[in-house]
Specification:
The protein has 9 helices and 5 strands, in the order αααααααββαβαββ. It is an alpha+beta fold. The chain has a 5-stranded mixed beta sheet, sandwiched between helices.
Length: 228
């Protein structure tokens, strides 16, 4: 606990310097997280906490996308602080999704990739998400298709087809994650991607891409020539 008035003055000055560096776009990653934490933990030196979080999770992005329960377990992060961090994460997701509702993905595909990364980074179980797009390649729906285990999740091609027809979707994007970093598409992933693509093609619906998030890296089945 800070009790010395000199210490209080130092920390107040330090936080003011952080805010000024933010305005000048000069913050290091840990300082950006430190600034964020200073608003929810106002009377404590949060520099060690910011550095510790980055060391534990691998970066600012990974801290934001870490599961709530993992954040709460980290020494120095209470429930309120963990909820604050996850609220920032959710605000970012809402922002990206609202843009996808209005933006043709071919015009800004990086937006879609960022949304995919935000959605799936830090997950401890595999999740399958399906994005359904209209004739102008705008987002109609983002469905959580299934949640599996640490290394597997089920894909139901006929359910994807039925949902696409119900929404009158003209194209589909598949997204999933591998909780273990550095693992690209498995043979099973490739086979189910081809199966979904062929089933959708029968009714003139295009599989635009299948994105895989693993260790903060986004793999594109199209860019890897896994989709014809």
């Amino acid at each position: 606990m800070i009790t010395d008035s000199k210490d209080l003055s130092f920390h107040a000055g330090h936080r003011q310097r952080l805010r000024q560096k933010f305005l000048e776009n000069k913050l290091a990653d840990y300082e950006l997280l430190e600034l964020l934490l200073s608003f929810v933990i106002p009377r404590r030196d949060v520099r060690p906490l910011a550095r510790g979080l980055i060391a534990r999770f691998g970066g600012v992005y990974q801290v934001l996308t870490a599961p709530l329960e993992d954040l709460i377990k980290f020494t120095g992060i209470g429930q309120n602080t963990a909820i604050f961090i996850k609220a920032i994460h959710q605000i970012m997701l809402v922002g990206y999704k609202s843009k996808l509702d209005k933006t043709t993905i071919f015009h800004d595909e990086k937006l879609l990739i960022n949304y995919c990364t935000l959605m799936l980074s830090g997950k401890t179980k595999e999740e399958i998400h399906i994005l359904y797009l209209d004739v102008s390649q705008r987002l109609l729906a983002d469905d959580l298709h299934s949640v599996g285990t640490s290394d597997w999740a089920a894909v139901y091609p006929r359910e994807i087809l039925k949902r696409a027809l119900d929404l009158n979707a003209r194209s589909v994007v598949m997204m999933h994650n591998h909780p273990t970093p550095g693992i690209s598409f498995s043979q099973e992933d490739i086979e189910i991607t081809t199966k979904v693509q062929n089933l959708l093609a029968n009714v003139d619906i295009k599989l635009h891409d299948h994105y895989l998030v693993s260790g903060g890296i986004v793999y594109s089945a199209r860019n890897m020539f896994l989709i014809k």
